[in-house]
Amino acid sequence: MNSVPPSVVAAERRAAEHGFEHSCERGVGDVIAVLAAATPPNGRILELGTGLGVGLAWILSGLGARTDVEVVSIEWDAERVLSIAEIDLPAHASIVAGDIEALLPTLGQFDLIFADAEAGKWTGLDLTIAALAPRALLLVDDMEISRYDSSHDRSLVEVVREALMTDPRLVAVELNVGSGMILASRRAIVH
Ligand SMILES: C[S@@+](CC[C@H](N)C(=O)[O-])C[C@H]1O[C@@H](n2cnc3c(N)ncnc32)[C@H](O)[C@@H]1O
């Protein structure tokens, strides 16, 4: 792992101060930053679930000085949105307050989606896949099944893994790092 960007450290601290324990792990953040850096010119990135902004900080750190990429993050917890609103977000990044599954069909297509919320992953996965532009990338975290105690949760993970690994619209690979990820790309041509 490279050194952790100061903006990520600050976001992690903010999450800790609020007792929020669901921020993405560093091994996941590293990957999303790399993928963000590869976004095509004038591309769009979507994060599902802002939490307290750790994933967003990783995405923005990956983009570095680029301002041509629009970054949208969705969060329905108003308190969390307000906590982030205190931070100076760059003009090309925004947090949309609302329900992920209601918003997904309204936001257009994206070149990179980080699915880090219950909605759009454990439920409504198809809405997320539909929001991928041709050749777009999808990163889904929290896929390490051994981290789940309940059989209900384990079967949810299995269903999502199976859906991602067998969907003809996607090429997908499992990354056994951090909380466990699946990285997929949206085929431009589906037979
Ligand atoms: C795992 S946390 C996100 C962490 C964040 N990506 C990070 O790395 O810091 C999931 C977030 O999704 C939000 N969430 C869950 N279901 C949602 C929904 N249906 N619509 C909007 N936000 C939702 C939760 O309130 C929570 O803050």
Descriptive account of the structure:
- With 191 residues, the chain is α/β, with parallel strands linked by helices.
- The chain has a single domain (6-186), classed as Rossmann fold (3-Layer(aba) Sandwich), CATH 3.40.50.150.
- It contains 7 helices and 7 strands.
- The chain has a 7-stranded mixed beta sheet with strand order 3-2-1-4-5-7-6, sandwiched between helices.
- Strand 6 and strand 7 form a beta hairpin.
- The structure holds S-adenosylmethionine.
- Residues 22-24, 47, 49-55, 74-77, 80, 99-101, 116-119 line the site of S-adenosylmethionine.
- S-adenosylmethionine binds at residues 22-24, 47, 49-55, 74-77, 80, 99-101, 116-119.
Main traits of this protein?
Rossmann fold; 191 residues; single chain; alpha/beta; 7 strands; 23% strand; 7 helices; seven-stranded mixed beta sheet; binds S-adenosylmethionine
Name the helicity range. 25-40%
Secondary structure category: alpha/beta
Bound molecules: S-adenosylmethionine
The run of helices and strands is HHEHEHEHEHEHEE
Number of helices, counting only DSSP H or I runs of 4 residues or more = 7
What's the average pLDDT?
Answer: 95
List the helices and strands and how they pair.
Blueprint: H1 6-17, H2 26-37, E1 44-48, H3 54-63, E2 70-75, H4 78-85, E3 93-97, H5 100-103, E4 110-115, H6 125-130, E5 132-140, H7 151-166, E6 170-175, E7 181-186
Parallel strand pairs: 1-2, 1-4, 2-3, 4-5
Antiparallel strand pairs: 5-7, 6-7
Helix pairs in contact: 1-3, 2-3
The structure holds S-adenosylmethionine.
